[in-house]
What does this fold into?
Amino acid sequence: MNITEHTMEAEEIGEKFLRRETVVIAASSADKKALENACGEAEASGRIPLLKVADASDIAKVRFMRPDALLLSDEGAAKGETDEIIPIILREFVDWKCSFVYQASRPCPFTDNLVRDEGFWGVLRGNAFSPAASGAAGESRRGFWTKLFRRRRYTRPLVKIGGIKRSQDANLASGLGTDIIGFELSSGAENIIGLINSLPETESAMVVSVPEGGEDLYKIAAELLEQGKIDAVEFDGKCPEDHCSSLAGSAFYRKRTASSYDDVKAMGYYGEARAMLDPFTASAEEASSGLIYGYVDDVFRNLWLSGGIGCHNVKNIVKKFRPELVEASECLNGADGGKDPQLMRAFFKEVLYAK
It folds into this structure.
């Protein structure tokens, strides 16, 4: 097989997928020689070989071929488990110029938006390939989820500091390595908008939270997102999925207070990649454990935890539940209502030494 040394433009590959039969070749099921032979046989028969990679070792296996395209699936390690973020994480292991097809295991409007917003060529469901929206594919298109998960570390969970009201608090949060800086849109939204507009660019993701039913605030959040002032919207409550998608595409997640197992199960019907679980406000930490473990076991979502988390308990929470993300907000406030710098620094030390 002649190894292609150049990378075709996304439009050219997209047209080829639509015009010619494509054969999916799983990298995990063959060695290098077998993969090369399979690709050669496909091309000789007039079909397009599309290599499917499941993990970093698969990407290392196909690196010598430097394919123009890879198929990245949202299927997790456990049977029946899906994670919409897996293709985004896998993409970061590719160190050559390449374009990507997202393999979705189920129909979901969120996934279509994710494919568009995060720069995939298109989405493959079963045997049906759908190209991304015109002009969406490419390295320049990287949205909220790529920005956030490029910050993922194995030494600590992702951290969100919420309820930011002052520029000095936002700057300190960014300097400490906060992954999401959160602002609340409620009464006094004008002040928060002014604050967001005044802040310098940061590598941290900027997210605004809007309360349930705040139609005017939904529109403000959508405008901030469209202007590039923020990276995502946190919908607090039971905002319908189609409403979330119409306002924010894939750049959103929902935050829900869970005081019963029914609340936990309801979160399993959400289509987005992540949801923020807040089980600590309605009950003590020990009483919340069953809700948290039920969420992880039944909903198949990586754990984002919020509610009453601060310096006093974050180490125990991280050790016990191994969350992917933790949020601290009110517990880091000082007497003046802003964030206490000493508490913020102490919080990050507790998080760092929790594992």
